[in-house]
Design goal:
By secondary structure, the protein is α/β, with parallel strands linked by helices. It contains 11 helices and 15 strands.
């Protein structure tokens, strides 16, 4: 669905994106994760032909971009940065203008599709209000409605939950999961680890313009080979385990290379209460921090 090779963008002496090799596959919910200023939005704009790459290649839906933009873009829904609308017009009118400007829009079904999309993103009750009266979160919802108007094969979203309250974030997450279940591939750019961790199937992490990892979320969070256990009797457990404890944080212990069943039998056999026990898995936050910290260390070395 999206493939780049050596994608690079420089602004004079500043390298915003360097040698990016993206691989977004059909039916992915791909989380493009990075801190603010890491190059995410520049990458998204290059994918859509809004910014020209300095070097490298971009393929979207099997076509080279931006050369095939007229073929590709009608099949892509996009929400990039803050959506721009006519403030004096209603949400309905803005969607009608957006739909009329594209080759795939049908006048006969336009009104029904507008009402359906407003209902889908939770704006059905305010569709007639001027957009200048909308909150930031409502504008984000309207931008998502515009991106969905033509039932896109590929949805490219840049920080789609910006400005939304927790309930709104939950609703958008549920909507994206349903769209993906129905066949839409989603490329989601975000700096929010929790958002990506709860939603995405594959992840690419960008740090200062370079892709530092690209893999399935399941692989990134695979068991580490160590065991996590929680016990109120920390000192006793550590004495029994005799140096096998790698780290401790309150009642939580990490034990190197232990089999959970064997470990449980050993501790319970000595009368130690075990409240929680299982394979250690790293959170996405831990994975990202380790990758970016390692890159910082390498960059700082002479």
């Amino acid at each position: 669905m999206i493939r780049t090779e050596g994608l690079t963008k420089r602004f004079r002496s500043v390298s915003a994106v360097s040698g990016l090799d993206l691989d977004v596959r059909a039916h992915d919910i791909y989380g493009f994760l990075g801190a603010n200023g890491s190059g995410k939005t520049t990458t998204v704009r290059m994918l859509l032909g809004l910014v020209l790459a300095t070097s490298g290649s971009i393929e979207v839906l099997g076509h080279q971009m931006p050369k095939a933009a007229s073929t590709v873009l009608p099949r892509v829904g996009a929400l990039v940065e803050g959506p721009a609308f006519y403030g004096h017009l209603s949400g309905q009118a803005n969607l009608a203008i957006f739909d009329a400007c594209g080759p795939a829009g049908s006048r006969r079904t336009r009104s029904a599709r507008i009402h359906e999309m407003l209902d889908t993103v939770g704006l059905s009750e305010v569709g007639r209000r001027p957009v200048k009266a909308y909150s930031l979160g409502m504008r984000q919802r309207l931008g998502l409605a515009a991106a969905l108007m033509r039932a896109p094969e590929l949805l490219i979203l840049d920080e789609p939950t910006n400005g939304l309250d927790p309930q709104g974030i939950h609703e958008i997450r549920r909507l994206l999961l349903e769209l993906n279940r129905l066949g839409t591939t989603i490329f989601l750019s975000s700096h929010l680890l929790a958002e990506v961790e709860q939603l995405c199937t594959r992840v690419g992490v960008i740090d200062r313009g370079r892709l530092v990892v690209q893999d399935s979320l399941a692989n990134l969070q695979a068991p580490t080979g160590r065991t996590m256990l929680s016990t109120p009797e920390v000192a006793t457990a550590m004495a029994i385990l005799n140096g096998r404890v790698v780290s401790s944080d309150g009642p939580r212990l990490i034990v190197q290379g232990a089999d959970p069943a064997e470990l449980n039998a050993l501790l319970v056999g000595h009368g130690v209460r075990v409240d929680e026990l299982g394979p250690e898995r790293r959170s996405l936050e831990q994975v990202v921090l380790e990758l970016t910290a390692a890159r910082s260390d390498n960059t700082e070395r002479p």
